[in-house]
Design a protein that fits this description.
It is built from 16 helices and 28 strands. Helices cover 35% and strands 26% of the residues.
């Protein structure tokens, strides 16, 4: 037996409000042990708190900066600070934070907070600074604005020629040329902005505070849509005599659907007015017809385009880098650190367990012997401590002499090898430039070949917008990263972890490919093809309503469309509806706060919206299972309540709230989409 479900959404408005999308920032200081890049338990807890804040954010960015203390060489500390920042970034992305919202940098020992050479100061410098900048909402009305903004889809069309648009949920809109005008009659030309808002899913109906009721009669909706046109931010009107063709997808077509036009009432509800324009039910084949044969002149526009590929730069070992002078060894030998003697412990006499031993046992004599032995050990300990302290003085003096000699050796070495190191770096930099140029040319050549192979009617749109930066990158000749070559220039061996993690080479190669993409003329050629294709498409729009292969496979031949025309000058919600009688079971929600209530009947596709000043009760068919979701803002933050009830006669429900997050509320709303 199938159980029908009714989903209720309650919104509770409290007195706690804040600025719309107010920006806030929080900074965390994460500290590390000496020469460590692993997160401590305290650092992990701080990052968990940061992640929790993002769950209440409408948008956010995370800036990570790695630092070290002054121990070790500059190069080593740069690498260590990079590893620390990477550990933080990996922790965040591993727990659901999108990497595109994270920026990461490292500074080694260049930004010390404490310059004193002490353990306490060094502990403060071994840190990663994490700055979270985020925006959030503080009231129900602000949450509506946020959800509605997420549902908007923007397009750009040419005013003279119009265009064919396909929205996220599958709606198709055909806008004829010169369809809009300024309200004051000013001339209009060039590009205009089109915004499409679909309300086919329950979450979109919530975002836009929509309802389906007309003169007290519930309406079963087949979908709602609003289309708005602007030019330079100014609203436009639909020109008299013009009409937009709209096709809204459905898998359960109803021939009895009518078209309604809606305007917002002062109390927040929508007043629907039935229009005379008919609603047609069209098959998938009628709306998504196969395209016409593609013009040969467009297909051949890329045939004669060539990319000049520079010669291979050769291998690193063939550069013949000038040899570095050998670094001398210090004459001062480093002493081993003296061993500190252990302090003796006093012993106390213990009574024996045997009968004869107890008879002979004299506790005072035994304790006297133990005390004499202890005094001898103390004397030896004091002698050893004097020797240890003297050895420590020699050890510390040796350390200072060794450090001074090593510093002088390093200074002399860098002075004597300075010109050689500079020459090696210049040779490596020139070699890398040749590497970047070759890889950029090979990448772009691959794109040209893809165009020449695949320009046809089924793949033209994908080929016109190539995103070569997202494709698999192949280092055709590369064995060392930038930092590896930098180590090589200094005559040092590169650590394995650095070689495995460093990605500067790929970044620089991508930048070179971006520059070549613009300079080669390939971009202009693509634009020429795109313009020719757009002109062809505008002339044949009735034959080019074709969804992607993926969507057709998902929906199959069962998908159909409600087709209608929009002729109203001002933008408004259009609703495809048919009357549906309600039942006799009354369900009311009770709470001390003001209530905003949405009622959903998914199978019948009915939605009712009861704003603050209206009664919060409705009638339902007998035996319906009611699922409700409610949330409110309080001094603690956002709170969420969910539950199910089957109303019988007059039923009353008081939601039980628990502290939640904006992310959880949004996910609960999206679950209504099924």
């Amino acid at each position: 037996m199938n159980v029908k479900t009714i989903c209720l959404l309650l919104f509770f408005q409290s007195i706690f409000t804040s600025l719309l999308f107010a920006q806030q920032s929080v900074e965390y200081q994460l500290y590390f042990d000496h020469d460590e890049d692993r997160l401590s338990k305290t650092a992990s807890n701080d990052l968990d708190a940061l992640i929790q804040l993002t769950h209440n954010a409408t948008s956010y960015t995370i800036d990570i900066k790695g630092h070290t203390d002054q121990d070790g060489s500059n190069a080593y500390n740069e690498a260590l600070s990079q590893r620390r920042s990477l550990s933080v970034a990996n922790y965040l992305t591993g727990r659901g934070i999108d990497a595109q919202f994270i920026s990461r940098s490292h500074f080694g020992e260049r930004q010390l907070l404490e310059t004193v050479d002490s353990d306490q100061a060094k502990a403060v410098n071994r840190r990663v600074e994490v700055l979270l900048t985020y925006e959030t909402v503080g009231s129900i009305s602000e949450l509506y604005d946020y959800l509605a903004e997420q549902n908007k889809q923007s397009f750009v069309i040419n005013w003279e020629e119009g265009g064919e648009l396909q929205a996220r949920d599958g709606s198709i809109v055909h806008i004829p040329g010169q369809a809009f005008e300024h309200p004051d009659g000013r001339p209009l030309s060039g590009e205009i902005d089109i915004t499409i808002e679909e309300a086919i899913r329950p979450s979109a109906m919530i975002a836009h505070q929509l309802n389906t009721a007309h003169n007290g009669q519930s309406l079963s909706t087949g979908g709602m849509i609003r289309i708005t046109a602007t030019a330079d931010g100014e609203p436009l009107l639909l020109t008299s005599g013009k009409a937009m063709d709209v096709f809204v997808p459905t898998t359960e077509p109803n021939q009895a659907m009518n078209l309604y036009n809606g305007q917002r009432n002062p109390d927040g509800t929508i007043a629907w007015e039935q229009l005379e324009e008919p609603v047609e039910v069209l098959s998938n084949e009628e709306v998504t017809a196969e395209p016409l044969p593609f013009p040969e002149e467009i297909l051949g526009m890329m045939d004669d385009f060539q990319i000049d590929v520079p010669p291979h730069p050769g291998k690193v070992r063939d550069l013949n880098l000038p040899a570095l002078l050998e670094k001398p060894q210090p004459t001062t030998k480093r002493m081993a650190k003296p061993y500190k003697p252990g302090e003796p412990k006093r012993q106390y006499a213990k009574k024996p367990t045997g009968l004869f031993a107890k008879m002979k046992y004299n506790e005072k004599e035994e304790q006297k012997k133990l005390d004499e032995q202890y005094e001898k050990r103390v004397q030896k300990y004091e002698q050893r401590m004097k020797s240890y302290e003297a050895a420590m003085v020699r050890y510390e003096q040796n350390g200072k002499e060794y450090a001074a000699e090593m510093a002088q050796i390093e200074e002399d070495y860098l002075r004597d090898n300075g010109k050689i190191i500079q020459k090696r770096r210049e040779m490596i930099a020139a070699y890398l430039e040749r590497c970047y140029a070759l890889e950029a040319a090979l990448r772009l050549q691959n794109q040209v070949k893809q165009f020449q192979k695949g320009l046809d009617a089924s793949t033209i749109q994908e080929k016109l917008y190539p995103d070569y930066r997202k494709k698999k990158r192949t280092a055709y000749f590369f064995n060392y990263s930038l930092v590896a070559l930098d180590f090589h220039a200094r005559g040092e061996q590169m650590p394995r972890w650095e070689e495995a993690r460093y990605s500067d080479y790929r970044i620089q190669a991508s930048r070179a490919a971006d520059k070549l993409y613009g300079k080669s003329g390939f971009a202009e050629k693509v634009n020429d093809i795109r313009s020719a294709y757009s002109a062809y498409k505008r002339k044949n729009h009735l034959h080019l309503r074709k969804q992607s292969q993926k969507e057709i496979q998902q929906m199959g031949k069962s998908i159909q469309y409600y087709g209608f025309k929009i002729t109203q000058p001002e933008p408004s919600w259009c609703n495809i509806d048919t009357p549906l009688p309600m039942g006799k079971e009354l369900l009311a929600f009770t709470n001390g706060s003001a209530i905003e209530l949405f009622t959903f009947l998914p199978r019948q596709k009915v939605v009712n919206y009861f704003p603050l000043k209206l009664k919060k009760s409705a009638l339902y068919p007998s035996g319906e299972k009611v699922h409700y979701i409610a949330f409110q803002y309080s001094s603690r933050g956002v709170e969420l309540a969910q539950g199910e009830v089957v109303p019988k006669g007059r039923s009353f429900v008081e939601p039980k709230f628990a502290l939640s997050t904006l992310k959880a509320v949004k996910e609960a709303i999206e679950k209504l989409n099924g």
